[in-house]
Amino acid sequence: MTAIKNRDTRPEMLVRRSLHRAGFRYRFHVSSLPGKPDLVFPRYKAVLFVQGCFWHQHQCAMFHWPKTRAGWWRQKITANRAHDEAVQDKLRELGWWVMLVWECALKGKNKLPKEQLVLEVSDWLRTGGSFAEVPEVLV
């Protein structure tokens, strides 16, 4: 697992570059906040996490349970999900807005155009809301 990057991933860099080009300024991987959010917008008191659909069990076509070592993976991914929810709860308790941008919004056949991604993030930052996801999960 140590070979798996947890920062500066391709999806994260795509989001960072797109938002920077659109004029948004942010800090990244702020260790003083719970969960070290990928992007922190202090001006808006908002944080953004770029989540991998597999590692964080997103309910989309990109997620599937592995067939080998199924028990171990189920425990690992379920623990990841529980940790994510605890971190999001802590951040909201501290007054931070939380947004999740899922990997499936950035690649694959259903990816959003970069302009749409920037529009969704900027609308959320400007209008507010304690929690948002891109794409929205319709379960």
TrEMBL record:
<dbReference type="InterPro" id="IPR011335">
    <property type="entry name" value="Restrct_endonuc-II-like"/>
</dbReference>
<keyword id="KW-0227">DNA damage</keyword>
<dbReference type="Pfam" id="PF03852">
    <property type="entry name" value="Vsr"/>
</dbReference>
<comment type="similarity">
    <text>Belongs to the vsr family.</text>
</comment>
<dbReference type="GO" id="GO:0004519">
    <property type="term" value="F:endonuclease activity"/>
</dbReference>
<dbReference type="GO" id="GO:0006298">
    <property type="term" value="P:mismatch repair"/>
</dbReference>
<protein>
    <recommendedName>
        <fullName>Very short patch repair endonuclease</fullName>
        <ecNumber>3.1.-.-</ecNumber>
    </recommendedName>
</protein>
<keyword id="KW-0255">Endonuclease</keyword>
<dbReference type="GO" id="GO:0016787">
    <property type="term" value="F:hydrolase activity"/>
</dbReference>
<dbReference type="InterPro" id="IPR004603">
    <property type="entry name" value="DNA_mismatch_endonuc_vsr"/>
</dbReference>
<keyword id="KW-0378">Hydrolase</keyword>
<keyword id="KW-0234">DNA repair</keyword>
<keyword id="KW-0540">Nuclease</keyword>
<comment type="function">
    <text>May nick specific sequences that contain T:G mispairs resulting from m5C-deamination.</text>
</comment>
